[in-house]
Amino acid sequence: MNCNICQNEFNYIEGLKFCPYCGSKLNVQFIPSGIEAEGNTEASDSSEKEQQEETTVFPEKEETVEEKTVTTEPVTKKLHDTLEMPVITDEDLKKDKKMKRSMKRAGVLSSIGKAIISKKVLIPAATLAVLGLAAFLAINLLFTKPVDEAKIKEDMTGKTVILPKGSSIVVKNGVIREIAITGRTPDKNDSKLQYIDAKMTLNNNSIQVSGTFTLTYRKEGRNQWTLNDKIALKNDIAVKAVAGMEEAALIDELKKQKISIGGEELGLGDGIVKEIKLTKRTPDFNSGKEVVLADVAADSGIVTTSGSVTASLTFADENWKLDTVSRSSDQDFKLALSGALSDDSILAQIKKKPLQENVTYSTVFGGREYGVNDKFTKSFKVTDKSFDEGAKQLKVSVRRENAAGVINSTLTTAYTLNVSLKGMTLDSSGKSKVEAVTVTDISNDSIAAMLVGANMKMGSYFFWGDSTHKITADEAKTFKLDKALSKKDVQNARYVYGNITYMDGKKAKGTSIVVIFLVSGDGSGGYAWKLDSVISSESYEYQFYSPEAVQG
């Protein structure tokens, strides 16, 4: 084969694109060696033309190249006269590979197209398309899953359902016992709204609600459904009790009631009611009724009582209602004194009416009356008490220590108080009785002080009347006590014996005297010793007040 450019001869290799001598691109006709060209003559027959066509190669043309006339004279060049073949770069190899891949893909697509047109492939292809469409619809439905029972349960958890009569039930976990979707209705004006009817049974262990609920769902996106807060109820809603009123609520209702005890009403919610304890419950849920027994204990701090009450309840309008409360037995709720009743609380009532009366005692004032009042009472003490449950009266005895100046009296007084669950009041008091009386002795300082200015009876003038001497302060200071005596059972009189020095003119004289003191009432301080008389031994009267005469 000869190159049309350099006319060098070489063997043709399949896929060869460049001349190995001059490097020219092989884009023109190549002439095999041994064939001579003849100009403007038909040098061969048809068999030779066919042989020539079989041996002539025509590569693809990419450029327009001028054809050269083949002469009979072969052109020959020496090897060293040829041009160097250009270097084949990596870029050339990449372009060549890319071209081969493009030709391969074109061939594959052409084969597929022919296969589809073919009847043998057309029917399976249609089947494949149907299967693909079904798969698409299945996936689309999967991602746009409709609201089901599980989602309704999840969405309703935490919601509050308002029942037909206005009561409510909070949907917590486990409250929805049964659920079944019975209908789905799209909104006519809003394609994103859907109304779902679901038949449900709600049970919170207190009430059971059965019927059809209408839920409104809004579609927010693919498989995104949002439940509106408002839940509508159909007309078939039925509410019944499955348990009685809760204990705390029942006790609260009981506290609003009253019972009669001893002719007075006791509010079960009053502060004196210390305990309400449910002891027995007898329910009839089919008829919506329940009977409850409860123990009640009350303590006012004055009296205490306890017993049992019976409460009747009815389930109506979706709620339990307390109908009646009554005492279970007439033998219950007896009154008794409270262990918390203190003497101080009793005395507080007594002191509201202070003692002021005349009493007697044999050893003072000759058994004659003398006055006492609580102005001088130093202490009170309850010595006895008894309770009359029928009369609801408390009877007590109170002992007083009354220190009215020098007279100390111990008195006991009986009192009657009216008591009830609500309080205690003083009803009446008896005559006070003096249990004991003591009279405080006169001190030496008091004797000396009271002698000042006293008239001391002296000797008589002739045969009638005694003379007197007025004791001065200096003379009173000279008094020396010998002894003090009282007559038997007469504590309110004192006979004090001693000696005193007095001035007779300018002469000091000493004499024995008896000073008589008597207890006398003092408007502000009670009772006090008062000096009655001073009798000198020189007086005729002294003999009547001698120690022997007083003690005899």
Characteristics:
552 residues, alpha+beta, six-stranded mixed β-sheet, five-stranded antiparallel β-sheet, 9 helices, 27 strands, 19% helix, 42% strand, elongated
Poorly predicted sequence stretches spanning 5 or more consecutive residues: 28-81
**Average predicted local confidence, pLDDT:** 84
Question: Mind summarizing the main beta sheet?
Answer: 6 strands, mixed
Strand content: 35-45%
- Biggest sheet, strands in spatial order? 23-22-27-26-25-24
Textual characterization of the structure:
- The protein is α+β, with helices and mostly antiparallel strands.
- Helix content is 19%, strand content 42%.
- The strands form 7 sheets. A 6-stranded mixed beta sheet has the order 23-22-27-26-25-24.
- The termini are far apart.
- 17% of the residues are buried.
Summarize the structure.
Helix content is 19%, strand content 42%.
Please write out the topology.
Layout: H1 46-55, H2 90-117, H3 119-143, H4 149-156, E1 160-162, E2 168-170, E3 176-186, E4 193-203, E5 207-221, E6 224-233, E7 238-241, H5 247-254, E8 258-261, E9 264-267, E10 273-284, E11 289-299, E12 303-316, E13 319-327, E14 336-337, H6 343-350, E15 356-360, E16 369-373, E17 377-388, E18 393-404, E19 407-419, E20 424-429, E21 433-439, H7 444-451, E22 455-461, E23 464-470, H8 473-476, E24 480-485, E25 493-504, E26 507-522, E27 526-536, H9 547-551
Parallel strand pairs: 22-27
Antiparallel strand pairs: 1-2, 3-4, 4-5, 5-6, 5-7, 8-9, 10-11, 11-12, 12-13, 12-14, 15-16, 17-18, 18-19, 19-20, 19-21, 22-23, 24-25, 25-26, 26-27
